Amino acid sequence: MHSNRVGEQGHFPFRSERLTCENGQWCFLTREGVLHGPFPTKDEAEKSLVVFMAEKLTEASAETGEAPNSLSGVQDDLSEMLEELIAFFRSRDGAGVNAALAWAHNRVAELRDSSRDNPFAKRRIEILLFAIDKAEDLAFQRVTRLA
Questions:
Q1: Average of per-residue pLDDT values in the chain
Q2: CB neighbours of 52 closer than 8 A, spacing ≥ 6?
Q3: In sequence order, what are the residues at sequence separation of 6 or more whose Cβ sits closer than 8 angstroms to the Cβ of residue 125?
Q4: Between 130 and 135, residue with greater pLDDT
Q5: In terms of DSSP H, where are the helices of the chain?
Q6: pLDDT value for 71
Q7: C-beta neighbour count of 38 within 10 angstroms
Q8: How far apart are CA 132 and CA 107, in angstroms?
Q9: Planar angle of CA 69, 37, 31, nearest 5 degrees
């Protein structure tokens, strides 16, 4: 049964599972009906979905000039990862890929230091390490979109 997500009020829209597995390969489905993938694992598909969402929110905020502070409607279990990636992309777009990588490495160290007090630190660290690993691809995607 579906219910309202963090930040949502009133009647909630129709929702379907975004992650799907076909023939052992994982994909994610966007609201626009586009299937992205395949990815070798569910974990990589989920992280790629979060990257996609963070890129869309970052692009929308660049168009409006407002920071993407509201994560209304985001699945609760993805919101922490999404917050970290939005900060990563802001750093990348403002100061470049190298600055974003330095920020991400510092943030991972900070999260590791506070992981005992923060139940969501593990997921935040995982998505930042994923972004660091995929930084070249993410930078390329951003450059080709701006061109």
A1: 78
A2: 28, 30, 36
A3: 108, 111, 112, 115
A4: 130
A5: 42-64, 76-95, 97-113, 121-133, 135-146
A6: 55
A7: 15
A8: 11
A9: 45
Q: Which residues on neighbouring strands pair with residue 22, listed in sequence order?
A: 25
Closest-CA residue to 27 (of 13, 6, 44): 44
Q: How much is the pLDDT for 119?
A: 76
Report CA torsion sign: 86, 75, 61, 53.
positive
Residue-range domain boundaries for the chain: 41-146
Strand partners, 20: 27
- C-alpha 12 chain-centroid distance: 22
pLDDT in tens, 60-113: 877 777 766 555 545 556 888 888 998 898 888 888 888 999 999 999 999 999
Q: How many CB atoms lie within 10 A of CB 58?
A: 21
Using pLDDT thresholds of 50, 70 and 90, give the confidence band for residue 146: very low
Calculate mean pLDDT across residues 43-68. 83
The tokens for 103 are: 């920020």
Q: Coil, strand or helix: which one is 7?
A: coil
Query: What is the rounded distance in angstroms from the CA atom of residue 79 to the CA atom of residue 83?
Result: 6
